Structure formats: structure tokens, C-alpha cells
Q: What sequence folds into this?
């Protein structure tokens, strides 16, 4: 994912622009929050004018929509503030109207924004992965249950969780007078948007309502403070682990090296196997289609050095694994 | 399990992307300067205050578990310029 470190950016400082991409009816406006320069994946604040209508259709990319104000009418039901939908690539939605318009957040996760009129799913669409929930009415706050956890007063609601990558989308809040005295970084990229309220981070100062950040891995953030409370939406692109410490001057490279050293200390056998194997992308038997799709077509998967186009041969087992098995 | 359905990117989409990427570069440079240069002095004060607090009130290890950091554990400020936006 090639997005720059955007932190902080306050969308109130810029005007809306008209969305002119093909497929989108007139009346949609956006503010670009961050954009992947390789794939076109992006996060945007959006505004749809009163009376906006969208025919049945789908996106080429997985997308997420969060409604901040107004409501969407779809199949006779109203989806108001707090409504969240994660729409897998190729899954179509029925026609929708926005009688009073809406403002919201729109995320296209793997490609540029797209809308294709369709009243049926694409043949490759995975409808079972769709998530539709109202974050305000259907879910209740809980403390963060990772270890180590954020200080008391930072609560979450999980909207979407990816079983394979542990990437997740969540609502979070900081209660009035929240404070946390440590510095954090993660192995994942993290982004967040302040739906309401101001919080403070030691590196960047205050982030008010409409404030946003996209932060690549291993970048320090914290200590944290919030005077009057904050409501926000957050996302990660893989597993979030809180690497807490108290050195304000550690660099991205030092943080990453520390994470690597911790991995060696915590999972020495796994670390050695992955690090010394000459075929260093272990396959997950629960997700064999990380290499091949259901049609048997080879799909994108990561290799050291970026080499993608190669033949695995008959066996995908690493030679390091063979050495361990005494072969 | 496609996250992205293969398709031909239109010329309009290509042109839109090019424009948005250029605008993002300008936005990033402004943020980078503001964060790494303009507020650097203020941030040094915030760092000093943090290092004082973790020796008196404590450092958050996990949730509400805190410990007081000893003076000899406090890191020394390196000579290099502090960078917070990368």
C-alpha cells in the first residue's frame, strides 16, 4: 500500500470537489483524505446532494461507507447516522435515494472509486462477506481487549474484521479527560477520522472534528490526551499490536528493528524458519487461495524483492522446512 | 476471493488519479514541513513534559498498569533532528 504519511489533515480546511469519474451520477462531492499512488485505493469524506439517487450497482473494489449525517433509503428502509456497510468487490446494492443528502466517509480499498450499474452480483463476488450494521444503534462500547491495551477510557466497537489479515475497521471513542502516557507504534498502517471532538498526540498536536490521519507502520504516536471526548472511526490494514515504549526520539527504522527483535524473542522457531527459508512466503492451509483463486488462476502474492511471476514447481514447501524434517 | 475485480481503467480514471496524486504530493509536503519544522520547538517541550510525567505519575505499561520510570532509564536526546512525519 503506497500512501504517504498524512498526519494531521483537517478536512474542514478544504472545499468539496465534484466527483466526475464515469459511472457516478451528478451530485456526489468528495474531499480526498489519502490515496494509494499505486492502486488508486483511497479514503474520502463525501457529500451527496439532497435528492441524490443511485441505480442498482457495484464497485470493482471492496468499499466501505459510513454515514455521518442524513440517511440513505434502500428497499424501503432508512439507514441514518452510524450506518456502516462493507461491500465486497462485485457485490451489488439495490437502488438508493438520499432525500436530504448525506455526508459520510467512503473507502475504496483496492482500486480507484468505481460504480457500475448492475442488478446482479459479479460472478466472482463474495456476498457472504458483506457487513451491514449501525455502529450507533446495534453495537455497544467495549474496552480494547488486546495486550498491551490502551489506557482506560479508550473504547471500541468492531465494525469489520478480516480473518486472514486481522485488518479491522472500528469505531473508537476517548472519554472526557482521557490520558495515556506512553508512545506507541504498530506493525500495521493505521488511519482514523474524527467524527466529533478533539484529541491531542504528543508528536502532532491537536486533531479536531474533521481531523484525519493515515500513518504507515512503525511511526511513533503518543502520549495521548482528550479533554472533552472524541468519537472517531479507525482502520488498519493488518494486525494491530501496540508496541509501547517511552523513547520520543526513536526513528521508524529503529522501531521496525525493535519489532523484529521482539518477534525473534517471542517466536524464535517461527522467526528462524521464515528468515532462513529460501521461499519466504509460507502458505496458510486455511487460505490456499492466497496463491490461486477458485478457478485455478494464479493471483497476486508477495515475494521478497517483489518478484511475482515465477513457477512454484510441484512443491511449495520451503527447503528450510525440508532441512528441518531431515530430508 | 477477489478484493478487486479485474477491469480496464478508463482514461478519465487515469487522468483523475494523476491529478489527485499531484494534489496529495502538495498536501504531504505542507504537512511534513508543519510537523517536522514549524512545531519542532513546541514539541520538544511536550517531550520534556512527558519524560517528567513518566518519572512522577508513571508510564502506561498496559491498560491501567503503570510504573514510574527511573531517571537512569530516561533516554538521551540524540543530536539528529527529530522527524515525526515520514
A:
Amino acid at each position: 500500500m503506497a500512501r504517504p504519511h498524512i498526519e494531521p489533515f483537517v478536512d474542514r480546511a478544504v472545499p468539496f470537489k465534484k466527483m466526475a469519474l464515469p459511472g457516478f451520477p451528478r451530485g456526489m462531492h468528495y474531499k480526498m483524505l489519502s490515496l494509494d499512488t499505486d492502486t488508486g485505493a483511497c479514503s474520502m469524506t463525501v457529500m451527496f446532494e439532497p435528492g441524490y439517487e443511485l441505480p442498482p450497482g457495484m464497485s470493482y473494489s471492496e468499499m466501505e461507507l459510513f454515514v455521518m449525517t442524513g440517511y440513505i433509503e434502500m428497499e424501503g428502509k432508512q439507514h441514518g447516522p452510524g450506518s456502516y456497510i462493507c461491500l465486497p468487490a462485485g457485490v451489488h446494492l439495490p437502488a438508493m435515494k438520499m432525500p436530504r443528502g448525506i455526508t459520510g466517509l467512503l473507502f475504496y480499498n483496492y482500486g480507484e472509486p468505481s460504480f457500475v450499474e448492475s442488478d446482479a452480483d459479479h460472478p466472482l463476488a463474495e456476498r457472504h462477506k458483506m457487513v451491514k450494521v449501525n455502529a450507533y444503534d446495534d453495537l455497544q462500547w467495549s474496552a480494547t481487549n488486546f495486550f498491551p491495551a490502551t489506557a482506560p477510557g479508550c473504547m471500541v466497537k468492531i465494525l469489520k474484521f478480516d480473518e486472514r489479515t486481522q485488518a479491522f475497521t472500528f469505531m473508537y471513542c476517548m472519554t472526557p479527560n482521557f490520558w495515556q502516557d506512553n508512545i506507541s507504534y504498530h506493525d500495521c498502517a493505521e488511519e482514523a477520522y474524527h467524527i466529533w471532538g478533539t484529541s491531542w498526540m504528543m508528536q502532532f498536536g491537536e486533531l479536531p472534528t474533521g481531523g484525519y490521519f493515515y500513518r504507515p507502520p512503525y511511526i511513533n504516536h503518543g502520549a495521548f490526551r482528550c479533554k472533552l471526548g472524541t468519537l472517531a472511526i479507525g482502520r488498519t490494514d493488518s494486525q494491530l499490536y501496540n508496541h509501547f515504549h517511552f523513547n520520543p526520539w526513536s526513528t521508524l527504522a529503529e522501531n521496525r528493528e525493535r519489532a523484529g527483535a521482539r518477534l525473534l524473542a517471542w517466536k524464535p522457531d517461527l522467526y528462524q524458519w521464515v528468515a532462513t527459508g529460501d521461499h519466504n512466503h509460507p502458505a496458510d492451509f486455511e487460505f490456499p487461495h492466497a496463491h490461486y483463486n477458485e478457478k485455478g488462476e494464479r493471483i497476486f502474492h508477495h515475494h521478497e524483492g517483489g518478484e511475482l511471476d515465477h513457477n512454484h514447481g510441484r512443491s511449495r514447501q520451503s527447503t528450510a522446512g525440508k532441512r528441518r524434517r531431515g530430508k | 476471493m477477489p478484493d478487486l475485480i479485474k477491469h480496464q481503467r478508463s482514461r478519465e480514471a487515469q487522468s483523475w488519479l494523476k491529478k489527485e496524486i499531484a494534489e496529495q504530493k502538495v498536501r504531504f509536503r505542507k504537512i511534513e514541513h508543519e510537523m517536522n519544522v514549524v512545531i519542532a520547538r513546541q514539541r520538544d517541550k511536550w517531550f520534556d513534559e512527558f519524560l517528567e510525567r513518566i518519572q512522577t505519575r508513571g508510564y502506561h505499561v498496559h491498560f491501567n498498569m503503570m510504573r514510574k520510570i527511573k531517571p537512569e532509564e530516561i533516554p538521551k536526546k540524540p543530536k539528529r533532528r527529530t522527524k515525526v512525519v515520514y
In short: The first strand of chain B starts at residue 59 and ends at 62. Helices of chain B lie at 11-38, 40-56. Strands of chain B lie at 59-62, 65-67.
